[in-house]
Amino acid sequence: MPTAETPPDDKPTRWNLANIYPSLASPEFQADVARLGQDLAACEAFFDQGQVRRRELAPAESPITLADVLESALQRTSALVLLSSTLESFVYGVLTTDSYDVQAQRELSRLEALNTRMRTLLVRLQGWIGSLEARLTELIAGRELLARHGFFLRRAAEQSRYLMSEPLEELAAELCVDGPVAFGKLQGNLTSQIKVQLRRGDQEETLPITAVRNLCSDPDPAVREAAYHAELAGWRSAQTAVAACLNSVKGAAINLARRRGRDSVLAAALDANLIDRPTLDALLDTIREYFPAFRRYLRSKAQKLGREKLPWWDLFAPMGASQRRFTWSQARALIVEKFAQFTPELGEFAARAFDEHWIDGETRDGKRGGAFCMEVMRVEQSRILANFDGSFDGVSTLAHELGHAYHNFCQTGLDPLLRGAPMILAETASIFCETLITEAALATAGPDEQLAILETQLTGATQVCLDISSRFLFETALLERRAASELAPEELCELMLAAQRETYADAVDEATYHPFMWLWKPHYYAYQDNFYNFPYAFGHLFATGLYAIYRREGASFLPRYGELLRDTGQDYAAPLAARFGIDIRQPDFWRGSLRLVGAQITRYESLGSG
User: Fold this and answer.
1) Are 473 and 518 in contact (CB under 8 A)?
2) Average pLDDT of each block of 10 consecutive residues along the chain (610 residues)?
3) Of 91, 118, 19, nearest to 374 (Cα)?
4) Rounded distance, CA 67 to CA 514, Å?
5) Which residues are 360's β-sheet partners?
6) 451 with 520: CB under 8 angstroms?
7) For strand 203-208 and strand 195-200, is the pairing parallel, antiparallel, or unpaired?
C-alpha cells in the first residue's frame, strides 16, 4: 500500500479541493458558472423548440423524431447535472469548512438561482416523459442511450403524475430558494457558529459547540456531563431562530406534497427511496420487537459505569480499552489494512483517499459538525468531512464515510442521470465498511478491547435503530401538528421528549433526555428529503444482512456486491435485494439482521466493565 504522508504533528488533514477549482475567484470557476448559465439558456431554447413539456395528449410525432429529441434532451440534461453538481460540490466544500466565508455564501446563492432554472427544466422533462409513457417501449427499442436510461425514463413517467402544472412547479422552485432552502442554510450557519462556555476542572474555556459535542465520548465522566449541559445551553440560545427554520422547511414540504397530489409527506419519501409502505412497516415493526434488546444494552452499560440508570451524556461514554487514542496516521493504517483484507481494491482506494487529502478531518470554528461524503462527479472523486477526535468511534466514522466514497467509486463512468442511490441504499457500503473494521478488530481483541469495539458497534446500532425510531416518531408528530399551525420551540422540545420516552423508556434517565435533538440534526432541514431517518435503519440492517451473506459465501459474494453498488440508481430496492435472495417486505430478513445485533448485545453483557 502507499505510505501516508504524515504531517509533522500528525494532525488530521484538511481536504484539498484544488483539482476541482483553484479557488472561488479563479477564472476556471467563474467561467464554469457563466457556462452553466449559457448551457441552461441553450437547453431551455431546445426544450421550447422540441416542445419538451407535459402535454394533455400523447405526442403524435414519428418515433424517430421523438427518440431523437429524447436522446438529445437526456444528453443535455446530463451535461447540466455534471457541471452544476461539480460547481455546487466545490462551493459546499468551501462553505461547510468555513461558514464565515462571505464569498462562498454569495456563490452558493448564485448557484441556487441557476439550479432553480435547472429544476424547472427537469420538471419539464419529467412531465414530457410522462406524456410519452405509452410510447416508451417503442422509442427505447434500438436506441442504446435510451435503453441504458430505461429505468430512469419509466420512473420519470410514473412520478410525473405528482407534478403540479409547469407554471406552479416553476414558481415553487423559485420561492423555495428564498423559503425552505434559505432557512435550511440559516440552520446550518447558526448551529456551526455557536460558541459556549465549558468548565473543565478549574479552567473555563470558550469552544465551538461542534467541539463540545465531540466531548460526549471523552473518557472523563465529569467532562461529558459538563459538555452536555454546555451544549444544551448553547442550543437553547438559538431555539427561537432555529424553530422558525424548522417550521418553514416542514410547512413547505406539507404544502408541496398536498399540491402535488401526494397522500402525505411520508408517501413522497417512500417513493424517493424506491420502497413501499409494507417494506417500511416490516422494518419498523421488527425494530420495535427488538427495543427490549437495545434497552438491555443500555442498562448493561449503566451497570458497567456504576450507575443505576444511564444519563444521556453517557450514551457515547467510552468503555474498555477505548481510552486508546488514534493518531491520524494510525487511523489510516488500520482502515487501509482491514479494507484490504476484504478486497485489495478497497484498501487501495482508502489509501488514495487519505494520501490525496480527500478528507477534512480536523475540528475548527466555522466548520459544520458531524460527518458526510459528497461526490465530485467530474473528477470521479469524493470529499469526506469528519470531525476526527482520535477515538475508535472516530475511526469507525471515517470507515463509514469512506464506504460512501467507495460506493461513488463503483459508479465511475456511469451517465450522471444513472448515478446515486435512494437514501435507504446509500448507507449500504458505509455500514458494510464499518462492519469490516469492527469484525476484523474483534477477531484479534482481548476482552477489554472487545468491550471497546462492541461499544462502538452497539452505540451505532442503537443510534440507527432506537434513536432513529424516536426521530421517525418525532417527525411524524411534527408534520401532523405543523399541518395545523406553527410550533413553538417548547412544543418541539415536548415532541422530541415524547419520542425519546417511547423508545428509550427507562433505560436512560428521563431527566436527562435531549430535548434539542430537533435543533442540530441537519436532516430535518432539507425540505425535499423528509424522513431522512428510517433510511439509516434500513441501511444498517440491510448491510448487516449482506455482511452475513458475505461471511457465508466468501469470494463469490464480491462480484454481486460490486454490481449492487453500481446499480443502486437503476432499479427499485426490492429487485436489487432479490439478487441476494432477500425479501425486504417480510420481517424475517430484518429479524435475521437484528439477531446478529442481539448476539453482540449478549456478548457485550458477558464482558466486565473494562
Assistant:
1) no
2) 46 95 97 98 96 88 94 97 97 94 94 92 95 94 95 96 91 91 93 92 89 90 96 97 98 96 96 94 97 98 96 93 78 95 95 97 88 95 94 89 97 96 92 88 79 88 96 98 98 98 98 97 91 92 91 90 94 91 93 93 85
3) 91
4) 55
5) 385
6) no
7) antiparallel
